[in-house]
Amino acid sequence: DPDPVAAICTSPENSVCRDDLECSPNTCLCESPDRFRIISASPSNQCEESCPNSVVSFTTNKPIGSLSGKVDILECTDADCTSGTTITPTSITNTVPEVAVIDMPLAVNTWYKIDVHGDLESATLPIRELHAGSYTWKFQTRSTQCNPDRVEVSPNDALLYETRDYTFKARAFAPADNC
Q: What whole-number distance in Å separates Cα of residue 17 and Cα of residue 76?
């Protein structure tokens, strides 16, 4: 007989799993921590006030393999997201091995549904299982863009010479919202 404590959990935050298992955030089932899965998405699921200029991304518990053809995006006609227009992202990158960033323009006052296919693979595990199928979340953008209140530039100090090329990275931050 399976261990009843190992079978379900009430929520990822209130896990009652055995010590060697963890609570899946999508299914609330206790499972092996080695199982490849998405652990968070941004903007958050069901958010109704997301910045139209925010970054759409998801984070996994292991490095991500190829993302080609693994993500579907729907610009929804209503909050149910049962129909709409399929959006092709400008790019989907994962420069940080566990984070995928979906580069796409977002319209104001619009619902979006993101579907990550169930055959998404880890770059380090031979496991193809992602939950019981795909990972889907939806969110709505608000009516106005978010204005940055600070920008971080890396490197923060540099000595520049006229004859050399330099690479700088900038990251803009806006005040926190509910998403």
A: 37
CA angle, residues 138, 114, 86, in degrees to nearest 5? 110
Q: Exposed, middle or buried by CB within 10 Å (0-12, 13-18, 19+), for 72?
A: middle
17 close to 6: Cβ distance less than 8 angstroms:
yes
Give Cα 154 distance to the centre of its chain.
23
- Would you say how long the chain is, in residues? 179
Pinpoint the alpha helices (H) of the chain.
Answer: 4-7
User: pTM of the predicted model, to two decimals?
Assistant: 0.69
Residues 6+ apart with CB under 8 A from 136: 113, 114, 115, 116
| Contact between 101 and 56 (Cβ < 8 Å) | yes
Q: Tell me how far apart the alpha carbons of residues 103 and 88 are, in angstroms, rounded to a whole number.
A: 9
**Residues 114-160: tens digit of each pLDDT:** 998 877 777 766 444 444 357 899 999 999 888 888 888 888 888 88
